[in-house]
């Protein structure tokens, strides 16, 4: 007959073994969590803002730096679109026709082929508080960019249907891919009508 170890000695080994197994399981789980945890999302860019911006009347049109919503900041075309929009508004604010031509499509340049006529259209214009609200895909690899901005100008230079010295615009700019990058295209009759109000 073989001798059976007493049940009491088996229980004495069972508790330490369970403690070791449980400790290894918890430790392994914590290690796996650290190894496979998704990285923290990148911190928000300083140019990412909430959709609403307000500027005191004396400070209109507001800053000239293009801002974006969080949605736009995470859009795959943000880095292709934002510099073009910035260059477009900088060229208007600095009265630089040649710089403006680099931001728009060939068709849009053909609508304003003369630097003198272009300069006359924007002679008193100053744009600011520029916010890209959304970027959407459009047919043939083009984009539609919804943006808002404030524009100040002399009342004589304001649009004929809205004579005001400060106008808050909300509109859609079509963008096409030409010459290796996106360019602001002509606005066609199918585009959304720009919204405007006094600022």
Q: Sketch the topology as an H/E string, one letter per element.
A: HEHHHHHEEEEE
**What overall form do the CA principal axes indicate?**
elongated
Helical content class: 25-40%
CATH architect. name of the largest domain? Roll
Structural class comes to alpha+beta
Mean pLDDT: 83
Distance between the termini: 102 Å
Whole-number total of structural domains: 2
Largest sheet: 6 strands, mixed
Low-confidence stretches: 38-46
Number of helices: 6
The beta-strand count equals 6
Radius of gyration computed on alpha carbons? 30 Å
CATH topology type of the largest domain: Nuclear Transport Factor 2, Chain: A
Q: What fraction of residues sit in β-strands?
A: 15-25%
CATH class of the largest domain: Alpha Beta
What would you say this structure looks like, in words?
There is one protein chain. This protein is α+β, with helices and mostly antiparallel strands. The protein has two domains: 1-37; 57-198, Nuclear Transport Factor 2, Chain: A (Roll), CATH 3.10.450. 34% of the residues lie in helices and 23% in strands. The protein contains six helices and six strands. Strands 1, 2, 3, 4, 5 and 6 form a six-stranded mixed beta sheet that branches. Strand 4 and strand 5 form a beta hairpin.
